Amino acid sequence: MVSPTPSTTATPSSFQARNLSLLVAAQALGGASPPIIISLGGLVGQQLSSNPTATTLPVSIYQLGLALSTLPAAWLMQRLGRRWAYVLGAVLGVVSGIIAAQGIAQSDFVTFCIGTALAGFYAACVQSYRFAAADAVGAPHLQAKAISRIMVGGLIAAIIGPQVVIWTRDALPATPFAGSFYSQAALAALALPILLLLRLPAPQKQAIVGTARPLKAIAATPQFIEAAAAGVISYGLMAFLMTAAPMAMVGCGHSVGEAALGIQWHVLAMFGPSFFTGRLIGRFGQRKITALGLVMIAASGLLALMGEGLSEFWGSLILLGVGWNFGFIGATAMLTACYTPAERTKVQALNDFLVFGTVAIASFGSGQLLHSVGWSGINIGMQPLVVIVLAIMAWQARKIKS
């Protein structure tokens, strides 16, 4: 059966709306896995590893697995189509949760790390749902709204993931935390029938073998550099600061509970604006909203420098979350204008490799840098990075006008 071809009307067709709804549901289930891994990975590592410096290794390996999986996942999407690649990703999501739980049950740190590493492939597929949404609607003026709508699924995931941890971490008293990773597997299993219902357009012949520029040539274009730089800085700084903030809060005398509450507000701020980010982009343009997001990320660092009280920490984390939402959704929308159908998959894969490779590096280095330069040093150091990207965007905007 031939899948319907997406239309380019002013609003999504019923076919497009159905696919978007399925992708939102899949995002809500698939996006719930990272909070489980990130919130419990260090605690399980502390429980299983005799080396104190290796306690956060499961989380860092998960981030590395995500980054390294972007390219093979894209290859599978190009050859098999997005739906079957996503189904395979969910299957690996099930397997990864079971392996991680078995690692806990057997008190085997290496097995647990293998489980979190495999979860990276599923996460790489989940991260590409936003591109599937943009491709599904087709019309450029609908893409930002489609991406924003998928990110609403992230808001649901941000609620599901922590609640699953609370409900299931002691479900198996003999093996604390194993229940949460079995639940991670169950969430991936629930996503399988949803993904099987997707009817995304099959890879067109011209999109696979058509005329396409070399990836190196595309990566050298000002449009790609601008979009990728904005995405890398938006996501990289957010991940780095989110990882360091709880440690900084506890180091400043705040309780673990207060630090956890700050992260909860941060995550809600990350995804809450998705209800209207697409409309803002439609009204003011991709570049302006992306730039606003970067300015808000810089402002979060300046607020953090004003003091070490809860209001400074929590306010900074909320600003950081909203800034990430505007910056990352805007950068993703900007990226969709950088490629032709024949170039789409490899450009999306390169972008995500750069973004999540940066996140993996940030995950490995945040604790050490916090120890070396302190919370204030981190927030000062981030400012030039934001300024550089804003300068690139201003130069590109001026070039387009002239």
Automatic annotation (TrEMBL):
<feature type="transmembrane region" description="Helical">
    <location>
        <begin position="20"/>
        <end position="40"/>
    </location>
</feature>
<keyword id="KW-0472">Membrane</keyword>
<feature type="transmembrane region" description="Helical">
    <location>
        <begin position="181"/>
        <end position="202"/>
    </location>
</feature>
<feature type="transmembrane region" description="Helical">
    <location>
        <begin position="109"/>
        <end position="129"/>
    </location>
</feature>
<feature type="transmembrane region" description="Helical">
    <location>
        <begin position="373"/>
        <end position="395"/>
    </location>
</feature>
<keyword id="KW-1133">Transmembrane helix</keyword>
<keyword id="KW-0812">Transmembrane</keyword>
<feature type="transmembrane region" description="Helical">
    <location>
        <begin position="150"/>
        <end position="169"/>
    </location>
</feature>
<feature type="transmembrane region" description="Helical">
    <location>
        <begin position="223"/>
        <end position="243"/>
    </location>
</feature>
<feature type="transmembrane region" description="Helical">
    <location>
        <begin position="289"/>
        <end position="307"/>
    </location>
</feature>
<dbReference type="InterPro" id="IPR036259">
    <property type="entry name" value="MFS_trans_sf"/>
</dbReference>
<feature type="transmembrane region" description="Helical">
    <location>
        <begin position="349"/>
        <end position="367"/>
    </location>
</feature>
<dbReference type="InterPro" id="IPR011701">
    <property type="entry name" value="MFS"/>
</dbReference>
<protein>
    <submittedName>
        <fullName>MFS transporter</fullName>
    </submittedName>
</protein>
<dbReference type="InterPro" id="IPR020846">
    <property type="entry name" value="MFS_dom"/>
</dbReference>
<feature type="transmembrane region" description="Helical">
    <location>
        <begin position="84"/>
        <end position="103"/>
    </location>
</feature>
<feature type="transmembrane region" description="Helical">
    <location>
        <begin position="313"/>
        <end position="337"/>
    </location>
</feature>
<dbReference type="GO" id="GO:0022857">
    <property type="term" value="F:transmembrane transporter activity"/>
</dbReference>
<feature type="transmembrane region" description="Helical">
    <location>
        <begin position="60"/>
        <end position="77"/>
    </location>
</feature>
<feature type="transmembrane region" description="Helical">
    <location>
        <begin position="263"/>
        <end position="282"/>
    </location>
</feature>
<dbReference type="Pfam" id="PF07690">
    <property type="entry name" value="MFS_1"/>
</dbReference>
<feature type="domain" description="Major facilitator superfamily (MFS) profile">
    <location>
        <begin position="215"/>
        <end position="402"/>
    </location>
</feature>
